[in-house]
Write a structure and sequence with these properties.
The complex is a heterodimer of chains A (536) and B (389). Chain A is mainly α. Chain A has helices at 2-20, 29-36, 42-55, 60-69, 113-127, 133-146, 152-161, 165-181, 187-200, 203-210, 218-267, 275-296, 304-326, 335-357, 383-405, 407-417, 419-424, 429-451, 463-476, 481-502, 504-521; strands spanning 72-75, 80-84, 90-92, 98-99, 107-108, 373-376, 379-382. Mean pLDDT of chain A is 81; it is low at 16-26 and 531-536. With 389 residues, chain B is an all-alpha fold. Chain B has one domain (18-350). Chain B has helices spanning 3-9, 12-34, 45-71, 78-97, 110-114, 130-154, 159-178, 204-230, 232-242, 244-249, 254-280, 290-303, 308-326, 334-348, 352-380, and strands at 190-191, 195-196, 199-200, 282-283. Chain B has a two-stranded antiparallel ribbon. The radius of gyration of chain B is 23 Å and the shape is globular. Classes of the chains: A mainly alpha (536), B mainly alpha (389). Chain A: It is found in: Cell membrane.
């Protein structure tokens, strides 16, 4: 902070000084080099880049980066060079003095591809020792890509001073890249370089190694070829892992959306086309919770989802029970009518939300612990997807435990298996119906909280999940939660493995067609209930 | 179709319905064309096109009623057959544009020129001939329904499972037709039609003729459905609807019956779509949206499933209401009304308007016939009660 301030102060004093004593006597090697930009000659420009970059002048970085962006203006008549800032203000490149406007005769300094690489390399070495860690890392990466020989020295000096491990690795890789292409590097150095690049093991490393050409010693070519082979096979493994991860992530979303349906459709046999709208209500509950927190208690923002989960369960569950009591209970045993009535209900709920919250997407934020990502080998894993996967599995486990070990779970299973027998054993079946439907809807509401983190919160949110959810339940087998779990992850992973081959939309179509064909073979899904209950 | 079958299949309600449709089919085009514009009795051209649309919907409703009302197959994907018929007709109309398109390519439709197609995809071969397009209007939906039904019915996918996979089918088609490289115009669909059989699509005369044709198609579809449901085949269908396993055990090949009626219904939906496209002037993938198919089912439910007149009437009533409400200040509330319609009809009016009316009429007739039987028996000792109808 202090050094930053003093630097600013210095530059301020310096510019005052310059304004006061703008004398020709100031011309030194830096100023001469800057003036070369105005010659409109590629070799002069290259020389100028080298001199400016190694001058240690404060203006070196703004000049070179302006050159890269085409913001470095040179006037061929007066041999003056200007830097136009991204904010539109201009300074004299040689002195750093602010100028009112760049003369009309000035034009941007031209670059060709060779010069562009020197610019990249110069910028790279300029920032290699920046105090900012991110900038250093980026600089090292850009040197790695440009592999400019002139950058070797700055890289080596930066490497000697570097303390951060990841920057050190990046610098080492940058050095290796330069050495590999340096004609006078020894064979040992080159072999070491190949090993370092092989250890990096990503697409860039592959591209670099495939580039080395034929003028290398035979041992290096051989080492590079074997490195390419091993990188390719490890990349193939990583891309499989990545597809599997995406598949798991999609599967968890599908499972979350379908798990409530597995209860209402799978366990109760009620076709609830308004299930997607329960998900939507959960997402809007999250939105409302976050709005209240934003306006009243901003400090609680990170806990907004924890507050939203039980609330969404209660809101969606209550609406579900209301629906069951007022509509669905009159339609038991008439599945096709239930389907139509709940579809109508979904239209009403969507339109109600549209009237209340407007038809556009609403902003739902990610809490800090859900944003960001981390690298695992060659793949990037975002925290929100990871949390959703964990959350889904937790919800699944709780639900399973509830059905298995709680009293109400026992009653639910009893009513599902044999309604009349359950009734004669003293179970209030209609109460169980309402509670079961409420449970399924409540879980849909919880799903909405999670989906609000990765999808647009709009009145159409639910509709996009309803067909997929039904597919999951039908595929997994009705009346079996494990079937839903397996179904969701199978469909998710299959979808993500088909996507790179067939494209996103065709992959989805292929999945739908496969399910339709699969139902031919196993009309009751993967894990079908056996026995007489099936025919009912 | 023997005259005997025809008369047997016509009760009074059906006769009134056919007479009204025929009268509309003749009078509306005549009034549109012959009376001076602005005259009190003249039907404006936009209304002719609008009602033409309703008539097409009525044919679709008949197709759905044939399988849902009489065979218990609830298809939530009939919009797909409708749209496929529409696309077949749309492709013919696209090829009729010829050099009058924006790019003036004699063979390729505009969107293909735009997407850098070098030659016509094979799927478009033959669509420059009307007879071929007309054949495809029947064949494409029919073939899809046949394959789909063959797979589904053979493995005894019934009830809601069938509904859900038909919905998945139309959803898959929706996604496919949205793709630009699928070769059917992608997102924008097919539009900007010029000629049909050499007549300008926009001309009043053509519109009136299309309306009359739609009415004719509605009458024909109605007669076909009526013949099917009142024949022995129809009785078997109803038996399947009410007790599928029992019909199978009685020796009927349930899946063959279902397959036949499903395919027939898909062909009818295709014809409806083909008539719909030149009248509205566009066909795009949103016609495949699952919501459309479900909406078509509710027309049938409102009118009365299992009554053919009801299905057609339901389509017209609901769509008239839709036009009426969505064009006024009540537009934001239309979805509430449609949703409430779904709920209320299934809860309170499960037989639909016509079904409820029929039940009420039968009841009062029964009372009356019971009375006459009693009095007749008192007079000359006839004990056999008269059959209703």
């Amino acid at each position: 902070m202090l050094s930053n301030l003093s630097a600013r102060l210095c530059s301020f004093v310096l510019s005052l000084f310059l304004i006061a004593f703008a004398l020709p006597a100031f011309a030194g090697p830096f100023e001469d080099a800057v003036a070369k930009f105005a010659n409109d000659d590629y070799s002069d420009t290259e020389e100028a880049i080298g001199t400016v970059a190694s001058s240690g002048n404060k203006l070196a970085f703004p000049i070179i980066s302006a050159l890269q962006d085409g913001r470095l203006m040179a006037d061929p008549d007066s041999k003056k060079v200007y830097v136009t800032g991204t904010d539109g203000k201009s300074i004299d490149a040689a002195t750093g003095e602010a100028v009112a406007s760049v003369p009309d005769s000035a034009s941007a300094v031209r670059l060709n591809n060779r010069l562009r690489r020197s610019v990249d390399a110069a910028l790279g070495s300029l920032t290699l020792q920046s105090p900012d860690l991110g900038a250093r890392l980026q600089a090292a990466q850009s040197v790695f890509k440009s592999r400019e020989e002139t950058a070797l020295e700055p890289v080596e000096s930066a490497l000697a001073k570097e303390t951060n491990k990841s920057v050190k690795t990046a610098l080492g890789e940058a050095r290796a890249a330069i050495l590999l292409f340096k004609s006078d590097a020894t064979e040992v150095q080159k072999l070491e370089a190949v090993a370092t690049i092989k250890a990096r093991g990503d697409q860039d490393a592959l591209a670099l190694l495939s580039d080395i050409g034929t003028d290398q010693p035979a041992s290096v070519t051989k080492a590079a070829a074997s490195a390419i082979g091993s990188i390719q096979s490890s990349l193939a493994v990583w891309s499989t892992v990545q597809n599997a991860w995406y598949g798991l992530s999609l599967g968890s979303v599908l499972l979350l959306a379908a798990i409530g349906l597995a209860i209402t459709f799978g366990v109760m046999g009620v076709i609830n086309m308004a299930h997607g709208e329960m998900v939507m209500i959960g997402a809007y509950t999250t939105f409302v919770v976050q709005e209240v927190i934003r306006t009243r208690y901003p400090a609680l923002f990170d806990y907004s989802l924890l507050i939203a989960v039980p609330l969404a369960f209660l809101v969606a569950g209550a609406i579900g029970m209301l629906i069951e009591r007022s509509i669905i209970r009159f339609l038991y045993g008439r599945p096709l009518e239930t389907l139509l009535a709940t579809w109508g209900l979904s239209l009403v709920l969507q339109q109600a939300v549209r009237t209340m919250f407007g038809p556009t997407n609403r902003e739902v934020g990610n809490p800090s612990w859900m944003s960001g990502a981390f690298e695992l080998g060659q793949i990037t894993i975002t925290y929100n997807r990871l949390w959703i996967l964990c959350f889904t599995l937790a919800v699944f486990a709780i639900l399973l435990a509830m059905l298995r070990y709680s009293a109400i779970g026992l009653e639910m299973r009893a009513v599902t298996q044999n309604r009349r027998m359950a009734a004669s054993m003293g179970i209030a079946t209609s109460r169980v119906d309402a509670l079961t439907f409420g449970l399924g809807s409540g879980i849909a509401g919880i799903a909405g909280v999670a989906l609000s983190q990765i999808d647009n919160v709009s009145p159409n949110l639910g509709q996009s999940y309803i067909i997929d959810s039904f597919m999951v339940v039908v595929f997994g087998g009705v009346g079996n939660l494990w079937g839903t779990l397996v179904g969701a992850f199978t469909l998710g992973i299959a979808n993500k493995f088909l996507e790179p081959v067939a494209g996103a939309v065709l992959g989805k179509i292929a999945i739908l067609v496969l399910i339709i064909l699969f139902i031919q073979k196993r009309p009751r899904g993967l894990f079908a209930l056996k026995g007489r209950a099936v025919e009912a | 179709m023997t005259p005997h079958m025809l008369t047997r299949s016509l009760d009074r309600g059906a006769a009134i319905f056919l007479a009204v449709v025929a009268a509309c089919g003749i009078l509306i085009p005549l009034s549109n064309l012959l009376l001076p514009a602005g005259s009190f009795l003249q039907v404006p051209t936009y209304l002719v096109a609008l009602w033409g649309k309703y008539v097409c919907y009525a044919i679709l409703a008949l197709a759905i009623d044939l399988i849902w009302g009489y065979c218990g197959i609830l298809s939530l994907g009939h919009g797909a057959f409708f749209a496929l018929g529409g696309y077949a007709m749309g492709m013919y109309l696209m090829r009729q544009i010829g050099t009058r398109g924006v790019y003036g390519n004699p063979i390729l439709p505009d969107f293909m020129v735009f997407l850098n197609y070098s030659k016509l995809p094979w799927t478009w071969y033959g669509f420059d001939m009307f007879w071929f397009a007309a054949l495809m209007v029947l064949l494409v939906p029919g073939l899809l329904a046949f394959c789909f039904g063959w797979l589904a019915f053979r493995s005894r996918v019934t009830g809601v499972y069938l509904s859900i996979i038909t919905q998945a089918m139309t959803y898959a088609l929706l996604l496919a037709f949205f793709r630009n490289d699928f070769g059917f115009g992608g997102n924008n669909g097919l539009t900007d039609f010029k000629d049909i059989l050499g007549f300008n699509v926009q001309a009043e005369g053509t519109r009136a003729a299309l309306f009359a044709l739609s009415c004719l198609a509605l009458i024909a579809s109605f007669l076909i459905c009526r013949t099917v449901v009142s024949s022995k085949l129809g009785k078997v269908l109803i038996a399947i609807r009410d007790a599928e396993s029992r019909s199978r055990f009685l020796g009927y090949r349930v899946e063959s019956y279902k397959l036949f009626v499903f395919t027939l219904s898909a062909c009818m939906a295709g014809v409806a779509g083909a008539l719909y496209v030149p009248q509205v002037g566009i066909i795009n993938p949103s016609e495949f949206a699952p919501g459309n198919s479900i909406e078509a089912v509710i027309w049938v439910a409102v009118g009365g499933r299992g009554t053919l007149v009801g299905a057609a009437l339901g389509a017209i009533v609901v769509n008239y209401a839709k036009t009426f409400f969505t064009s006024g200040v009540l537009a934001p509330y239309w979805l509430f009304m449609l949703g409430a319609l779904f709920i209320l009809v299934t809860l309170l009016l499960p037989k639909g308007i016509v079904g409820t009316f029929n039940a009420w009429r039968d009841q009062s007739k029964e009372k009356r016939s019971a009375l006459t039987t009693v009095s007749a028996a008192a007079e000359d000792g006839v004990t056999e009660p008269k059959m209703a109808e």
